[in-house]
Amino acid sequence: MKAIQPSRVAAPNGPYHHGLLLDKPGQWLLISGQVPLAADGAIPDGIHEQTEMVWTQIEAILADAGMGLGHLVKITSFLTRSQDIADYAAIRKKRLGDNRPTSTLLVVSALANPKFLVEVEGMAFAPA
Fold first, then answer.
1. Which of 18, 46, 85, 98 falls 20 to 30 Å from 12 in CA-CA distance?
2. In total, how many domains does the chain have?
């Protein structure tokens, strides 16, 4: 995997790469948007709790595929409130560490359930 950071493009505005060149054979895992919905139907309150739950679910999906957070190469995050960006970013940084997947963050008017404050989808790649 090679990070692509063209000098003629502004530096990333956060912990991500503009592009990742995946030049080896391997396996792809596409992760549907994960929302803060527990197996028992509970929805936690607050952006911190909801974000932690979403990332825990992503880790579980990755683990079942034999991967970890370091295999993420693309994430798309959706928030319903711009004031939650800093809290979301702090948890994302804590979970991802030095991994810098390509990333998009959108602030949207609503998600599938009005109680959801965050949703994250992703793509992971494990070289053969």
1. 46
2. 1
pTM of the predicted protein model: 0.90
8: its two tokens: 């003629």
Residue percentage of the chain with pLDDT more than 70: 100
pLDDT at position 54 is 97
Residue 108 predicted with pLDDT over 80: yes
| CATH code at position 39 | 3.30.1330.40
φ/ψ of 67, rounded to 5, equals -125, 175
Residue 22 lies inside a defined structural domain of this protein: no
**Closest to 86 measured CA to CA, from 43, 51, 121:** 51
Residue with tokens 């599938």: 112
Contact predicate 21/1, CB 8 Å: yes
- Distance in angstroms (rounded) separating the CA atoms of residues 84 and 47: 7
Residue 94 belongs to what domain range? 34-127
